[in-house]
Predict the structure.
Amino acid sequence: MTRGSTRPSARVALVTGASAGIGEAFARLYAAEGCDLVLTARREDRLRRLAAELGERFGVDAQVIAADLADPAAPAAIVEALRGRPVDILVNNAGYGLPGVYAETRWADQQAFLQVLLTAVCELTHRLLPGMIARRYGRVINVASLAGLVPGGPGSTLYGATKSFLVGFSESLNIETAESGVHVTALCPGFTWSEFHDANGARERVNRNVPRWAWQDAEAVARAGMRAVEANRAVAVPGLANKAIALLARLTPDAWALALMRAQAARFRQL
């Protein structure tokens, strides 16, 4: 933990997957807003460097909890490590892509994927939401994806499905908490400059096939998420191009949309 905060009223933001990409961007932006931080991810060395930097730069308290959300025990362990510290802002950002045709992958890998992208999100939210409701203040940002708003395609088979779940989950919670002072948003970015495509081996393919205008930087995506949750918008799609794609997906007949995904998916996903 960095030097302690002297601001007793500082909000506390817990960010999963905070060691890089969109999660790191959220951590930086909330620190700049004066929020104390709880940073969690697998790479403790990166988290500690980030915590030290943000603590020194913004004078906030930054607690590091190294955890692998693929471990079913991790969400409970994270909450226990808080030692009763209230969390006002929860950013469920941790995630990755699992390439390959579903039938040719190992179930153990798919099970871990579901644990990180779906079960851990639900459990952390379930554990922290009651306190937010009791205090009449809370912000929950579930980092979904534009993939959750368009028809599914081959490869990374469960990715779009889990992100679609997060959209519906966030919409339901947004309604349930409408009178409680808690805001819930599903953030649905498209292609974002981060380590995501390096981790799943798709970097060369997407760089070759996705035009530069289609990309956003992680800070812009995080800022859009922060604005959306403050406005209590249930779903936020950052970027004009992504908004157009999401709208087109809603208006296009299913058979046409699936045919388009079938034709284009191999350009972006490893099969």
